[in-house]
Write a structure and sequence with these properties.
The chain has one domain (about 5-25, about 35-215). Helix content is about 75%, strand content about 5%. The protein contains nine helices and two strands. The chain has helices at about 15-30, 35-45, 45-70, 75-80, 80-105, 120-130, 135-145, 155-190, 190-215, and strands at about 5, 10-15. Helix 5 (about 80-105) runs antiparallel to helix 9. The radius of gyration is 19 Å and the shape is globular.
Length: about 220
């Protein structure tokens, strides 16, 4: 007997949900702008900072899930101007973070220690990093429908359910990355030279991500 998952008027086979969740875990583990961002922030500012950034990124995924569920993401797929404008905003923000990292003094950021940034600032960084990347919405627009079926009920509710599972997978994977990178930061925290190197590495990573985002095509 086929096991079914009921959410309101939506019925999705448990096997399909498990396949989707497993795929989402693998996608979260694949190197990309978001998990690299979590890794660098955790190593520089501690695991607590990394977890706050992760929560911000997942909040951004909520926005992407809703835009896809209600069809707004199609605008970014169809409009070159909207796509370009949003990606340039994201690239500029990443360049700003790169500038901050390159100009941080060794005493300004303590690896693996409590962040000088407030919880809201770290959380906001994650949100901005995620929602200013239009590729995420377009990815969702291509990925989520593969596991949806009109015969199972409302497509909007199915998209929201699948988006929620993707966010849960992301939270688990990125949370683990934050904890591991935070431990690395603690081990390097007593070395001012290591701190300077990590700041430069982070700045280079942010600049590289900005360049990649600015030159990406739909």
């Amino acid at each position: 007997m086929t096991l079914l998952f009921f959410v309101g008027c939506v019925m999705i086979p448990l096997t399909a949900l498990l396949a989707f969740f497993g795929t989402s875990i693998l996608l979260g583990l694949a190197p990309g702008p978001d998990n690299i961002f979590v890794l660098t922030q955790s190593a520089l500012r501690g695991r607590g900072a990394g977890l706050l950034v992760t929560l911000g990124l997942c909040t951004g995924l909520v926005v992407h899930t809703l835009t896809v569920s209600f069809g707004v993401a199609a605008i970014f797929q169809a409009s070159t101007l909207a796509f370009t404008a949003l990606k340039l905003v994201g690239a500029c923000y990443l360049l700003y973070l790169a500038w901050q990292a390159f100009h941080a003094s060794a005493s300004g950021v303590h690896l693996g220690q409590r962040s000088s940034l407030g919880p809201w600032q770290l959380y906001r960084r994650g949100i901005i990093m995620n929602i200013t990347n239009p590729k995420v919405s377009i990815f969702f627009l291509a990925f989520l429908p593969q596991f949806a079926d009109p015969a199972r009920g409302s497509l909007t509710l199915q998209m929201m359910l699948l988006g929620g599972l993707f966010i849960l997978a992301t939270l688990l994977v990125f949370g683990a990355i934050a904890l591991l990178a935070g431990l690395l930061g603690q081990r390097l925290s007593q070395s001012a030279r290591a701190e300077r190197i990590m700041n430069r590495v982070a700045g280079t990573v942010f600049a590289g991500l900005a360049l990649k985002l600015a030159t990406t095509q739909r």
